[in-house]
Design goal:
With 512 residues, this protein is of the alpha+beta class. The protein has two domains: 3-206, Hypothetical Protein Pfu-838710-001 (Beta Barrel); 223-504, CHAD domain, CATH 1.40.20. It is built from 15 helices and nine strands. It has an eight-stranded antiparallel beta barrel. Helix 9 (278-311) packs antiparallel against helix 10 (321-346). It is globular and about 80 Å long. The protein starts with a helix and ends in an 11-residue tail after the last helix.
Length: 512
């Protein structure tokens, strides 16, 4: 990617629209007669041409993503990404240029989907668009477009033709629902959301994505199905977090979700290990561990900086809190910025992209042991019980004067137990979910313990470092002492909470 392309930041806008299939003779009803509509402005007819790019196996289309080069009206390079509810998408735009290939600034955003597969022209659509602006009490409630679409073949001839309506919400509120109902009553077919290029490309573009969203298995189904559903859920979460980080690298939540997804996948492979081919699972776990560790400096730096900065407000008024905050910004800010750059480079690393290839194959064809074919209700409870036993042992060794490392080890055991319970709860039901909620209480307390211990150590390190004024060093020492107070408060909270969490009633469902 060139420096100019790296500097180019796509403009992003959220669009909310509904699509309607209509036949060639369909007549749009008079929308100006609807309650709440004050006027319908005819915006005329425009012509536009859109060239769509995708991989050979149409990975983008199958994920509900479109990447196009549009000329005529609304010209530019456009990348559309699903954004939650059906019909809601984020459109990222760059100005039109003279290239036929998609700009790197857009292509890189979906690289976790395309990976090593090149983007190529897959379809060209020429559209005649008639537009109507729907107004209500002086506001633009929405826009209705009537598109007649011609699918252009590689020889330039029209290969197919169809018509559809798009109703895009602007400031419409419930009025948009009224308009949609009027269109449906007139014979338009709504309730679907299929991109034009998907209609043009046919069944292959509408096939399930590489990593499909899977239904929750039933307790009587093979445990294999629970494993695959779990892997699918968190591989999709990892890919979504990847796209989010590429879009907004400065957002701490994006790197957090990347790390959480990687850790849940690794923990899941550990939990389900008795159902898996051991060497296969361990190799995949090792790659996930490598990736999660590579994210650690950035995530921990974000948390540390935010916590210490926030707790500067608790310093006595005679101490130079502002100078301490500036020191934190200078020292930790630079470290975090460097770590953020390294994560951005990591996401384009061949090893990371190869990890995604392996994860896709793991969802499609996990290497399982014979017990994976047994019913989930007979197999899964024992997997969680094994994780619980390790947590119970680690927690029993904790004392108020135990080293931080022992408390951290208990935290890791608690997280593995929580993840294990949450992995099986959708299949095994409310008792497993209630157990997971109890263990979550422990992980939250131990997470606070770890954050406070790390913050205390960093504040003490900065207090002893050069250069720092005596007042700033003293303030950092106070900050470190305050963080150690949070450590001891977390230990007291754990002592109060643990007896309730370890009550046998939460684990009766594990008895098989």
């Amino acid at each position: 990617m060139s420096r100019a392309e790296q500097a180019a930041r796509p403009h992003s806008a959220r669009e909310v629209e509904q699509k309607f299939r209509v036949h060639g003779l369909f007549r749009i009803p008079d929308l100006s007669t609807l309650a709440g509509v004050s006027a319908v402005d005819d915006l005329g007819v425009v012509e536009l041409e859109s060239a769509y790019y995708d991989t050979e196996d149409l990975r983008l289309a199958r994920e509900g993503i479109t990447l196009r080069r549009r000329t005529g009206d609304d010209e530019g390079w456009h990348l559309k990404l699903p954004a939650g509810a059906v019909g809601t998408r984020d459109e990222l735009r760059l100005p039109l240029d003279d290239r036929d290939a998609p700009p790197a600034a857009l292509a890189v955003l979906v690289r976790v989907i395309t990976r090593t597969q090149p983007l190529r022209l897959v379809s060209t659509l020429r559209t005649t668009r008639a537009r109507q602006l729907i107004r209500s009490d002086g506001k633009d409630a929405g826009e209705l477009v009537d598109d007649t679409v011609h699918v252009v073949g590689s020889d330039g001839a029209v290969a197919a033709r169809f018509r559809e309506l798009e109703l895009e919400e602007r400031d419409g509120g419930p009025l948009i629902g009224t308009v949609a109902t009027a269109l449906t009553e007139a014979g338009a077919v709504g309730g679907e959301f299929v991109a034009k290029v998907v209609r043009a490309l046919g069944p292959n573009a509408a096939a399930p994505p590489e990593v499909p969203e899977l239904p929750v298995p039933k307790p009587k189904d093979p445990a294999h199905d629970t494993l695959v559903a779990y892997l699918s859920l968190h591989v999709r979460a990892l890919r979504a977090a990847d796209v989010a980080f590429r879009r907004e690298p400065a957002d701490p939540e994006a790197v957090h979700q990347l790390r959480v997804a990687a850790r849940r996948l690794r923990s899941g492979l550990r939990t389900f290990r008795p159902l898996l081919d051991r060497p296969w699972a361990e190799e995949l776990r090792a790659e996930l561990a490598w990736f999660a560790r590579a994210l650690g400096e950035l995530r921990e730096g974000d948390v540390l900086r935010e916590r210490l900065d926030r707790h500067c407000a608790d310093l006595p008024p005679d101490l130079p809190a502002a100078e301490v905050k500036q020191l934190l910004a200078d020292v930790l800010g630079g470290t975090v910025a460097d770590a953020r750059t390294r994560v951005g480079e990591l996401l384009d690393d061949d090893r990371y992209l190869a990890l995604h290839d392996r994860l896709v194959r793991a969802v499609a064809r996990p290497r399982t042991a014979p017990d994976a074919e047994r019913p989930a209700r007979d197999v899964l409870p024992a997997l969680v019980e094994k994780a619980w036993a390790k947590l119970d042992g680690a927690a029993d060794d904790l004392t108020d004067d135990a080293p931080d490392d022992e408390w951290h080890a208990a935290r890791l055991a608690a997280k593995r137990t929580r993840y294990a319970a949450e992995a099986v709860a959708p299949v095994l039901g409310g008792d497993a979910k209630a157990f997971a909620k109890q263990v979550e209480k422990v992980t939250e307390i131990l997470g606070e313990h770890q954050d406070a211990a790390m913050a205390a150590a960093k504040a003490r390190e900065l207090a002893n470092a050069e250069p720092a004024s005596t007042d700033v060093a003293f303030a950092l020492g106070v900050l470190a002492s305050n963080e150690r107070a949070y450590v001891h408060a977390a230990r007291a909270a754990f002592a109060d909470t643990w007896p309730h969490v370890r009550r046998a009633k939460w684990r009766r469902w594990m008895e098989t």
